[in-house]
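Progress report, Aim 2. The chain analyzed during this reporting quarter is listed below.
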Amino acid sequence: MSSADQPESGASAAGQTQAIVVKLGGRTQADPALPSAIAALFAQWPGRVVIVHGGGDQISVLQQQRGDTPRFVGGRRVTTESDLDVVRMALSGLANKQLVSAFVALALPAVGVSGEDAGFLRAAPIDQATFGFAGTPVSVDVRLIALLLKQGYLPVLSPVAAHEDRTRAQAMNVNGDDAAAAIAAALGAEELFFMADVPAVKDSTGTSIASVSPQQAAALISSGVAAGGMAAKLEAGMRAIAQGVGRVRIGDLHALTAPEAGTAVVAE
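Predicted structure tokens for the chain:
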């Protein structure tokens, strides 16, 4: 991603929060051990943890309950204007509040917001003719997140974004990995952790990889060894590193509080 394509930060808080951004995938969100793991991380880094979540499975279930068929092109969800109601319900409603409730039950000061709140995350259409209202982040105003962190809260962020056109009351469906990378970059995060349902990125033999460079990641993706969600995490991780995030890791629930576990995404 060139400098011209990088999401812009909307405040001077970047580089001052030393935040740790954790991206949760839809399946990992259902792990009953997750709240305790987040509580352990928060105990280590109070007032510095930011959660970004997905919820693609919840979106698909709600679409099917409405009689709709989820559609994907190249692994990316097609989002019509009517689908946005489902996206908001699944991500900013169901997934977000389930996580908040689980964290609050462990006495964590969790606060759930979406990218639409204060327009802190704004996105542009990827290709409206093909993907509808699926977007890519173009700006992150970190003031709301920084304020919550300063007051000791645990922000839990839905990746539903506001439209880049500030005069339009239009939501945009943003991939959670893309949102997490943009938010981490805007905050000047110390670490971005992508939680997966596998311990690490694996090579063609199924062996876990301790670290991966942009060239190695591109080879894993082009060969099909890393596909789907893992490919998306690698791509988002590379963007985050290029935009100044201190460290990026991909791993499972155990790796969250084990700094040397998982796969580190490194710059060449």
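The longest helix spans residues 83-104. The domain at 6-198+241-259 is CATH 3.40.1160.10 (Carbamate kinase). These observations will guide the mutagenesis work planned for the next reporting period.
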